[in-house]
Amino acid sequence: IFTVDPYSYEITVDGVDEETKVLMQNALNVGNNGKNLYKHIYYCSTQDGCESSQVTEESKMKYEAYHQVYSYTGYGLDKLEEKNGTYYTESGENILDLVDSTVESSGKVPKEFNQQMKNWIHDLVSKISTRGWNNVPDMTLSILYGKSGLKDMNQLITYQYEADRMNRQWYSVL
Hints:
Elements: E1 2-4, E2 11-13, H1 18-28, H2 33-46, H3 57-73, E3 81-83, E4 86-88, H4 95-106, H5 114-131, E5 141-146, E6 149-151, E7 157-158, E8 172-173
Antiparallel strand pairs: 1-2, 1-5, 3-4, 5-6, 7-8
Helix pairs in contact: 3-5, 4-5
Organism: Agathobacter rectalis
InterPro entries: DUF4885
Pfam family, one: DUF4885
């Protein structure tokens, strides 16, 4: 099983001996492999009514809150102090104030949508902080790996490719 951390995108390997595990993880955790695998698993888990148990509304909200704040400020919410419906840096700055100023100055969002972006991030951060970072499940994603390649898991519809030339199957319903 390959498992991808939703924040660092580090890939961990399970189901093999320790030596093989270390070799595989070293080979896999290069460049954007973890992020690309994560996005692939997420995409396959959320289309066509797959109903993956790996993705919940709460875990997706936590993932979005983390990555939106990180993309604008460089801070990981999991490393900040949680207080009063928001998060604070070591120097005592409210992370939402940093988000606001960076959204305004970054140019990532057209000016006419800056307020909507700030409101969305404020809402995400407030909901996660109110529930408590450790009380909301992480959207850690996993995929099976075997001789025939990668195979989705924990969902109603799987996307796979069988190695046997006579039995090619990209889409199967469980």
